[in-house]
Amino acid sequence: MARFLEDPSLKLNIHKNYEKGEMSYNTAMRSIYPMISIGMAKVYRGDRAENVFEMINEHPVVYPLRTAYGRIKILSSQIGNEIAEEIDDIASVSLTGGFVNGTFDGDSPVEILVITESESEIPPRVIGRLEERLGRRFVFNNYSLDEWLYLRDAGDPIFNHAKEEYLHLFGESLEDP
Questions:
Q1: Helix (H) or strand (E) holding 29
Q2: Band of residue 154 on the pLDDT scale cut at 50, 70, 90
Q3: pTM score, two decimals?
């Protein structure tokens, strides 16, 4: 979504972003339809028109929203890079919870899902640095790759909920690490 908002000529193809593992299909659709309802985006007429959208640059909310998403992109890269500096076997880092589904408020923590190749834990010093630098409380859900694949194969509600609402930050996608 950040690239969609940053580049005025970009057409957002929800299927392609979903297939690349950049965001869940549900997250993308829930993000775009409110934009359409207030005139910020429209269906692009072309191949697979029902899932390709473009931004209406003349809408007064588009520029501030582009600025906000640019900041989110920077925040996302900081989180992924900070974790990668401390843990060398990361399979995936994704933003989940209220910051993805729109239910966050001033007190909501930033929820991060980390999947590692082994059973690496997120060091408390990393959490402390992120909280200090970004001024938010963080909650990390940490799984080894074996645990995550087990949850996926078992159809566990934890896996199913995470794959419905996530924004991929670093490494492989949640659905196919």
A1: helix 25-37
A2: very high
A3: 0.60
